[in-house]
Structure formats: C-alpha cells, structure tokens
Amino acid sequence: MVDIKKAEDAVRQLLEAIGEDVTREGLIETPKRVAKMYSEILEGKDEYASEHLSKVFDVKSSDMVIEKDITFYSMCEHHLLPFFGKAHIAYIPSDKVVGLSKLARAVEVYARRLQLQEQMTNEIADAIEECLDAKGVLVVVEAEHTCMTMRGVKKPGSKTVTYAARGEFKENQRLFSDTIALMR
Ligand code: ZN
Is this model's pTM higher than 0.85 or not? Predict the structure, then answer.
C-alpha cells in the first residue's frame, strides 16, 4: 500500500530539489496527483497472480495454448521510469487450462509494481507453471525502456527481449524455437 501522505511530501521535496517553485499554479496539485498515480500503477505489489490463475478448467488435453500480444506497462526499479510492451505466453497444460483473460491479469499483477524485465518474465513463468501444473511454459516479453530511450543510450523504439522457459520448453530446443516463431 502506498502511504499517500508520505508520497506527497516526497514529491514536493523532489520538486524543490530540482529547483522548482512548488507554489506555482501548475505544480500545486502535482504532489497529490503523483501520489495517487503511484498507488494505481504499483497496485500489483499487493496482489497475487495465483488469485487469477487458480480459476482453472479441467480439460483432457495437453495441446499447447498461446496467448500473444498482452500489452503491459511497468516501472523500472532502477530509474522509476516506465517500460512497456507486450508479453507472449505459451503453455502446455496437464489437463488444466485457465481462461485467457486470466493470463493477462497475471501479467498485470507483476507489471504493476517496481520491476526489472528479466525478473517479471521469470515471475510470470513460475506462476503459470505452479498454478496450472503445466508441462511447459514459455514467456517472451518485449519492451521499450524509457530509461534507455529517453536518455539517448539506445535509439527510440529499440526493444529489449527476455525469455523464460520451463519444463518441456527448457528441455526441447526444437519446441522452444518453433514456438518462438509462432509468437512472432
Ligand atoms: Zn531503468
């Protein structure tokens, strides 16, 4: 939970530190707005992906499920700047599947907190493997990091791609690369 009062004070102090006049019209409400915004974009910290992923259906199938292009917005914990992009998820069920919207909700839970892309990719894969008892999970995340593109280290629009493979996707290189091709 974000301590709104403390966050407001901190934003006010930051504005002062960067030489702003916190009493000028455009900034009067800024500490309050930023504090409220943080509580919204970081709300995943108080949530559990298992709440969404435990709503499973029994199926007699172990055919791969792919959910592509799940849009997400997250916050880089090194710079407190957004990184955003798409997550693609593939899993091989062992008689249990989950509603497709639940996969997107699980991504949200891990995106809406201070994050690192590599860590988020792994957390999503672990949650799906655990909750669904899946035979294999592959998560691909591609994102633009504004901490890189805004500061000119990388060209705007450049993407960072991370992978997390579990179970059969880890053991079977062919399956891994065929599935990556399907996700593109
Ligand atoms: Zn960063």
Answer: yes
